[in-house]
Amino acid sequence: AEPGLTLTGQLGDVMKESAQIALNYVRSHATELGIDPEAMRQRFHVHVPAGAVPKDGPSAGITITTALVSLLTDQRVNPDVAMTGEITLQGQVLPIGGVKQKVLAAHRMGLRTVVLPKRNEPDIDDVPERVRAEMTIHLADAYADVARAALT
Fold this sequence. Notes:
Blueprint: E1 4-9, H1 13-28, E2 43-48, H2 61-73, E3 81-83, E4 86-87, E5 93-94, H3 99-108, E6 113-117, H4 129-132, E7 136-140, H5 143-150
Parallel strand pairs: 1-2, 3-6, 6-7
Antiparallel strand pairs: 4-5
């Protein structure tokens, strides 16, 4: 198959773009991520299962990047970590909306560690104190910060 990306599931255009940027980031930073550049010569299939709402916000970039890095390096993703944030082609982590709702959702699911964009730090104040007290929040400026918090 032609190297690249196949996307299936309930994805809007913004999320398709996030997945493409994630793959391009991993491809162009393969060596520093500990990935054999030869491994990038394959086709990747990203499937997003249908949920209650189509996924279309720009906030899945670091998550898709982490899934690709995990796959290509055999590093496990810590199953107790939730994450949200967009990624640039240079690996910068960009801010997202809905921090309070996302942290509350992670907490409701029993997750106690969340990775958020550094630039969303002021939004953490919107999360109720009783929830914040039970959470460990990692702020990420660049993808390396995400990897440190999420990969085992």
